TrEMBL record:
<dbReference type="GO" id="GO:0016491">
    <property type="term" value="F:oxidoreductase activity"/>
</dbReference>
<dbReference type="GO" id="GO:0016020">
    <property type="term" value="C:membrane"/>
</dbReference>
<dbReference type="InterPro" id="IPR020904">
    <property type="entry name" value="Sc_DH/Rdtase_CS"/>
</dbReference>
<keyword id="KW-0560">Oxidoreductase</keyword>
<comment type="similarity">
    <text>Belongs to the short-chain dehydrogenases/reductases (SDR) family.</text>
</comment>
<dbReference type="InterPro" id="IPR036291">
    <property type="entry name" value="NAD(P)-bd_dom_sf"/>
</dbReference>
<protein>
    <submittedName>
        <fullName>SDR family oxidoreductase</fullName>
    </submittedName>
</protein>
<dbReference type="Pfam" id="PF00106">
    <property type="entry name" value="adh_short"/>
</dbReference>
<dbReference type="InterPro" id="IPR002347">
    <property type="entry name" value="SDR_fam"/>
</dbReference>
Length: 219
């Protein structure tokens, strides 16, 4: 029987790398990202289903759930960095902070709620919530993003206790050479970070080995 995964933020970075890794193992994939053109190219490459859209849009969440009535793995990878250059909390625009929480916390929970019936029905349903060391580290400028990831970690922690039939992992992938990191620290520093493909391989191993739910660091 073919496993099915739903991956958000799948057009580049870790989401793309994980989609490629799972596709190589025969997984059926439902992929989403905001950039329709890039997502369609990835879907064509991998033989996946592409559903472009914004995970913060409730109607889009409903479309994703309908596209995966049988689901074994949900990967909440889509994320927003927030305001750049990264501002101190004393100057963080509150409207932008609310939007950041909507994308990084509320949207993953909405997608979890929409797909939990299918994940519970699977014999090996699992959820991966991609977080960050900014959730716990006091890094100047990272307060907005870090606060959103801290909330996602606690959400995951409680969900793991409430849903014992579904594996829930909240995963800190470490610094990766991605467009998001480059926007935060500059292209030169980002280029020295880990290759997302290597991180995706470790994440694929995690999903395959199915350890107990909990926080996982891939650094």
């Amino acid at each position: 029987m073919t496993n099915t995964a739903l991956i958000t933020g799948a057009s580049r970075g870790l989401g793309l790398a994980l989609a490629r890794s799972l596709a190589a193992s025969g997984w059926n994939l439902v992929l989403t990202a905001r950039g329709a053109d890039d997502l369609e190219r990835v879907a064509a490459e991998l033989g996946a289903t592409a559903i472009p859209g914004d995970v913060a849009d409730p109607a889009h969440v409903e479309r994703l759930a309908r596209a995966a009535p049988e689901l074994d793995l949900l990967v909440n990878n889509a994320s927003d960095l927030g305001v750049t250059p990264l501002p101190p909390l004393a100057a963080y625009p509150l409207e932008a902070f609310s939007a950041l929480l909507e994308t990084n916390v509320t949207a993953p929970l909405a997608l979890i709620q929409a797909t939990l019936p299918a994940l519970r029905a699977s014999s090996h349903g699992a959820i991966v919530n991609v977080t960050s060391d900014a959730a716990t580290g006091a890094y100047e400028g990272w307060g907005g993003y870090g606060a959103s990831k801290a909330a996602l970690e606690q959400l995951s922690n409680v969900l793991a206790a409430e849903e014992p039939s579904v594996r829930v992992w909240w995963v800190d992938p470490g610094e990766m050479n991605t467009r998001m990191l480059a926007a935060a620290v500059g292209a030169e520093e980002a280029a020295a970070a880990s290759d997302p493909a290597k991180v995706a391989a470790a994440l694929h191993d995690l999903v395959s080995s199915r350890p107990a739910g909990g926080k996982v660091s891939l650094q």
